[in-house]
């Protein structure tokens, strides 16, 4: 298939500078609440000569650098729930490898309607419950089997999505930890970084050997992502769960509008 081509991509200094800036903004958003791929992936898709699979793979290289930086910053100040984070991370890594393989087989358009419906549902659920995520109220015992089972399931499902498409992964993890396990938004965001690190690694385990990563572009995005990730994590820690919740709702709204517009545009072209 032509879209799997990993041919050379010419990069000018202007394009590299744009990628650094996109990575910076995406890293900040991702560190606070997830969803940085909403900024980063579309910018990579605009690079002349870059195929969709190359953009997706290169996005993961930038994201893993930023996620590692923000996770390290969070771990110094916020204690993640390791009993949920570690099982979810293991399952997410395996799911991301599977999702990355699916990315080369399943048309992107097949994912959009379902993702859009889920995002609208998540947004409505969050708005309908103003107290959701303001403080931790665990649904199950921290070390219970149900707590672990939900973490495994959440990690696996989100991991498959992240490997296949990616944008909004961190947001799905955050709302999953808040709504399903009862974390507050700040702890959910910190825990999501560990799982997101695993999903990025899982996707790269497929993309790097397959030769889909455009390294120059990926390193430029990674540089911005690291700076944005550190700044974003410090911002979230300083302003707390209420701030993270507000950013979460804004990111969801932008994600819904963007995916909705792309879906409608795709239907119009197909008409």
UniProtKB/TrEMBL annotation:
Belongs to the 4-toluene sulfonate uptake permease (TSUP) (TC 2.A.102) family. It is a multi-pass membrane protein. It comes from Brevibacterium rongguiense. This is Probable membrane transporter protein. The chain crosses the membrane at residues 109-128, 149-181, 201-231, 243-264. It is found in: Cell membrane. InterPro entries: TM_pro_TauE-like, TSUP. GO terms for cellular component: plasma membrane. It comes from the Bacteria. Keywords: Cell membrane, Membrane, Transmembrane, Transmembrane helix, Transport.
